[in-house]
Amino acid sequence: MNIPVVYEDDWLVIVDKPAGLLTIPTPKKEKRTLTSILNDDLKERELLYRLHPCHRLDRETSGLIIYAKGKASQDKVMELFHSREVKKTYLAFVQGNLPRPEGEIKSPIEGRHALTRYKVIEKRKGFTVVEVSPSTGRTNQIRIHFQQMGHPILGESKFAFRRDFKIKAKRLCLHAQKLDFPHPVTKKVLKIDLDLAQDLKEILAKYP
Questions:
Q1: pTM higher than 0.85
Q2: Cα–Cα distance measured from residue 55 to residue 82, given in angstroms and rounded to the nearest whole number
């Protein structure tokens, strides 16, 4: 499977994860994941290092994910995440029209503080295109927060009934589009911006 590499240096690889692929195995111990595909490719090319994911994306979410070349590099990137120096920006298609052009969602998740900021990019017929910046990294945070607002992400099946959606999407319409963080070794600020996934472009073309 061809996984597009968006950025690479001696310490990091940033790839564009396709929707439908797990980052790492769940307790079901799936063998085919993004991490296994990348490391199998390294083996075939007889490269001695291994890639370690520095964060995760849901199976249905597409977009940018950071991998470290070796455990030492992974530890340095994880320190950036723990100190909240990694800014992640997503694009989401949410059901209905949001009443405000921007805002914050502060509802706790599993008893822990969670904060999601959003900004409306454009309103379409039946849904809204939203830029989303989670300040905390709770599991399924973006999905839960928009469901709590009454505007679940199109294609949502875990936290909403997909059959209730007027606009049908084959997968969750959530795309990790931007990364902004200081490089853990060189300290240079990296700003990575990814184009929208093709299937999401098709939804925009279908529902102007």
A1: yes
A2: 11
